[in-house]
Amino acid sequence: MTYLAFHFVFIFPPILLLAWGLVRLGPGRREAVLGRRWWWAIPAVAGIAFVYTTPWDNYLVWKEVWWYGPDRVIGTIGYVPIEEYMFFLLQPFLTGFFALHMLARRKGASAWGLREIPGLRVEPLPLRGNLVRVLTALPWFVLTALGFWLLTFDAGVYMGLILAWASPVVGLMWLYMGPRLWRFIHVMGLAVAVPTLYLWFADIVAMAQGIWMISYDFTLGPRPLGLPVEEATFFLITNVLVVTGTFLFLIPGMDRLDLKEPGALDSSGDPRVSS
């Protein structure tokens, strides 16, 4: 299987299916449940992901943390295959579209007539807004420090590069809008988990097909089902980036829809009860 064929088998079909589902919702229902920013939030996240990931991934290939089968790619720009650049843009659409569907399900709107998921509710804040910011951002900054420490020895390089590259961005997003993001923690959790499991499976297949390979020298060792723990972490944390970033764009446009719900937030990020 080539890298391009991988996209046609694993990436394009779910994106098209999810996009068709959003079309089926209709323009009125889409704005009613997703707010006013849904149509440009994911392209914005994809563009940012492309710019932020390009130098990082070029460094990985240059250092031979991972490499590709020369006969499995169309060509390269810099050190990275063209299909890899495509993935920088495609993953935000795959995960982002799924997140939009989960958000719609929270309001009982489904393109396929599915019922509302009771667990996908607006979650009230357990603590005051500023404390939520600190407590939700702090673990990500701890992971950032762990990432830089892992870079001090060869076997930790890939995991260190992942954590040092992605964790501070997630931490800053939660520091900026943690109280408002917390309202959607159940939706966001599901929106991260399902695409991550799917991409883990796709990655196992791709590595078995020899589309790309991961260095043993720069990894910690564990490879359950043939999937390096670093690759599992990569897809998990990049989906966290995509979902958190998508909600960061969506929430301001959704406030006018949700402020009548109990536990909604004022502009400072603290909870209030509507009358």
Report how far apart the termini are.
59 Å
Q: Structurally, how many domains make up the residues?
A: 1
Question: What's the Cα radius of gyration?
Answer: 19 Å
Strands, count: 4
Structural class comes to: mainly alpha
Instruction: Compute the number of helices.
Output: 8
Helical residues, percent: 55-70%
The largest pleated sheet is described as: 2 strands, antiparallel
Strand fraction band? Answer: under 5%
Order of helices and strands: HHHEEEHHHHEH
Shape verdict = globular
Unreliable stretches covering 5 or more consecutive residues: 112-116, 259-275
Written description of the protein model:
With 275 residues, this protein is mainly alpha-helical. The chain has one domain. Helices cover 67% and strands 4% of the residues. The chain contains eight helices and four strands; from the N terminus they run αααβββααααβα. The strands form two sheets. A two-stranded antiparallel sheet has the order 1-4. A two-stranded antiparallel ribbon has the order 2-3. Helix 6 runs parallel beside helix 8. The longest helix is centred in the last third of the chain and has 30 residues. The C terminus is likely disordered.
Key traits:
mainly alpha; two-stranded antiparallel ribbon; 4 strands; 275 residues; 8 helices; 4% strand
Briefly, what is this?
The chain is mainly α.
Strand and helix map with partners:
Blueprint (H helix, E strand, L loop, with lengths): L2 H23 L1 H8 L3 H25 L3 E3 L7 E2 L2 E2 H25 L22 H22 L6 H26 L2 H24 L3 E3 L14 H30 L17
Antiparallel strand pairs: 1-4, 2-3
Helix pairs in contact: 1-4, 3-4, 3-8, 4-7, 4-8, 5-6, 6-8, 7-8
